[in-house]
Design goal:
The protein has two domains: about 10-180, 3-Layer(aba) Sandwich (Rossmann fold); about 180-365, Up-down Bundle (Dehydroquinate synthase-like, alpha domain), CATH 1.20.1090.10. The longest helix is centred in the middle third of the chain and has 21 residues, at about 220-240. The chain is built from 14 helices and eleven strands. It has helices at about 30-35, 50-65, 85-100, 110-125, 140-145, 180-200, 200-210, 210-215, 220-240, 255-265, 270-290, 295-305, 320-325, 355-365, and strands at about 10, 20-25, 45-50, 70-75, 105-110, 130-135, 150-155, 155-165, 170, 340, 350. It is about 45% helix and about 15% strand. A hairpin with a 5-residue loop joins strand 10 (about 340) and strand 11. Helix 5 (about 140-145) runs parallel beside helix 9 and helix 6 packs antiparallel against helix 7. By secondary structure, it is of the alpha/beta class. Strands 1-2-9-6-5-3-4 form a seven-stranded mixed β-sheet, sandwiched between helices. It has a two-stranded antiparallel ribbon with strand order 7-8.
């Protein structure tokens, strides 16, 4: 099937909160007609950041205005360090000045940080208004735009303040990935590798086989990677929307360790996917020490992340400094750390049967220079 010849639609079935993920090259230029499928009010509030605005705000604005919408815009400072309650206050104040009411909607145009903040603002504004996700990074396209997790960081930890608020629509245009830096692009591949580790060993093997084409941003390879990632994410969201049954927590493989790394380095040293790459290495070593993953499987993970130019060691923080941050993780229960570990490649489980010595050994693996 030629890339871009049809829209790939992946439905997320959540009763009255259901919505489509629509993937097509060039769909950004048709965002107005796509958003009009759900947004029936006269106004839209776009949330973006300064970097994305330079590339795509004019094109999206033209399409939305041609569909009859009056627009207002919040331009946020980029970067995880700016994903704060102060930024949310700025966004909702912009919405107030624009006269956004409960019949209007929000459009998130950007990466995962923009999507998290726009979704949280939409969830909080007048107790909840609809919003659309138009993700412009690979991390956002394969992960954060799907599933309704929204929120901001505190000094105490990542995403501690937020809400579950499902989008009404996710529009994915693979062409926008062409403006990403190499570092931003490969950062998103960490989340892609995660899906293979927790759910689909054949997908993992295909990433190994097609790594050169994926790194070269081959269009057909990107569409396959994005669509399969969204399909896997959809499965977990439908099975456990608000992460109460345990299954959706499997999506956090590498994230418990990774979020601790981000917090310890004040969200400035690593991109999100880079921290998750390190977190998966720590989780794999923890799983290996518990007999859940073989040395060969651990090495396959490390080799693939290295091929994708993602970090696998060298965290400039001691394991002793990282360990307390795990206890603030949202999956912790009664102060007890719970971690997602894989059983080989292609299966995962959430467990609290992990002691501090094993966790320290996991952190030690990535804090070394080897």
């Amino acid at each position: 099937m030629p890339v871009g010849s049809v829209v790939i639609e992946i439905p997320v079935n959540l009763a009255e909160r259901s919505y489509p993920i629509r993937i097509e090259q060039g769909i950004l230029a048709r965002s107005g007609e796509e958003v009009a499928r759900f947004a029936k009010g006269p106004r839209l509030h776009i949330v973006t950041d300064h970097n994305v605005a330079r590339h795509y705000l004019d094109a999206v604005s033209r399409s939305l205005e041609s569909a009859g919408y009056a627009l207002s815009v919040s331009r946020c400072a980029p970067g995880e360090a700016n994903k704060t309650l102060l930024s949310i206050e700025s966004i909702v104040n912009d919405m107030a000045r624009a006269g956004i009411d409960r019949w209007d909607a929000v459009v998130a145009l950007g990466g995962g940080i923009v999507g998290d903040m726009a979704g949280f603002a939409a969830a909080a504004w007048m107790r909840g208004i609809p919003f659309a996700q138009i993700p412009t990074t690979l991390v956002a396209q394969v992960d954060s735009s799907v599933g309704g997790k929204t929120g901001v960081n505190l000094p105490a930890g990542k995403n501690l303040v937020g809400a579950f608020h499902q989008p009404a629509l996710v529009l994915i245009d693979p062409l926008v990935l062409g403006t990403l830096s190499d570092r931003e692009y490969v950062s998103g591949l960490a989340e892609v590798v995660k899906y293979g580790m927790i759910r689909d060993r054949d997908f993992f093997a295909s990433l190994e086989h097609d790594s050169r084409a994926i790194l070269d941003r081959d269009p057909e390879s990107i569409v396959r990677v994005v669509s399969r990632s969204c399909e896997i994410k959809r499965e977990y969201v439908e099975a456990d929307e608000k992460e109460r049954g345990g299954k959706r927590a499997h999506l956090n493989f590498g994230h418990t360790f990774g979020h601790a790394i981000e917090a310890a380095t004040k969200y400035r040293r690593y991109l999100h996917g880079e921290a998750i790459s390190l977190g998966m290495i720590a989780a794999a070593r923890t799983g290996r020490n518990l007999g859940r993953i073989s040395p060969k499987q651990e090495e396959r993970l490390r080799a693939l992340l290295t091929t994708f130019r993602l970090p696998v060691s060298g965290v400039p923080v001691s394991p002793s400094a990282l360990l307390p941050l795990l206890k603030r993780d949202k999956k912790a229960r009664g102060g007890r750390i719970r971690i997602v570990l894989t059983r080989g490649i292609g299966s995962a489980s959430l467990t609290s049967a992990v002691g501090e010595p094993e966790i320290r050994q996991g952190f030690a693996r990535i804090c070394s220079r080897r």
